[in-house]
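re: that chain from earlier
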Amino acid sequence: MNLRGIVAVSGRPGLYRLVGQNKGGYVLESLDAQKVKIVTNITTTKLASLEDITVYGQDDDLKLVDVLANIKAAKSNVPDAKSDVNALKSFFKEVAPDHDDDKVYTSDMKKIITWYHILKDLPLFVEDAPAVIPDQEGIKGEDKVEKKPKATSKPSNAKAPSKTAQPAKKANMTSKKGV
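^ sequence. v structure.
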C-alpha cells in the first residue's frame, strides 16, 4: 500500500494528495471525485501524513498502513462509519486486536474507516510503497541532495561589496599619534 503524499488536514474533512509547495502554503488536491485544488497556509495548517500515523496499542503503536491492510483483508464486512458504536468497536477489535481501548476513541475508529472507504478504490491502495534504500551514511537515498560548488568569477578570498556600506567621505583629516 502506497500512502506516500496522502495527508489529512486539520479542520477539513477527507484526504488530500500533496501536490507541491509554494511560498504561501501547501498545494493540495482532494481525493474525492471533485479533485478540488487548494492552497493551505504553512503557518496555521497542520498536515498529517497517513504513512506516519499510528494507532495506540497495548504494547507498541500500530501503523495505520497495517490497520488499513487488515481492513482490506476483511473487506467483506467493513461497516459504514455511521454504524452503531458497538459494531464499530467489535470490527476494530478484529482488524487491530492490540489497540488500546482506553486511548482509541470511537471517533478515531470512524475516521479510519472513512479514510479506508476513500482509499479503497484508488490505485495507490493496491500498489506497493516505494522502497527506501539507505546509503553508506544512513541517509535516505531520495532525500540526499548533492551540493555542487557554485561557479564564481571571483576568487574565494575576495570580499563582495556590502550593500549597506556607505562611501568613504573625503575629508582633510590627518591622523595624529599620541593625542
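The first strand starts at residue 6 and ends at 9.
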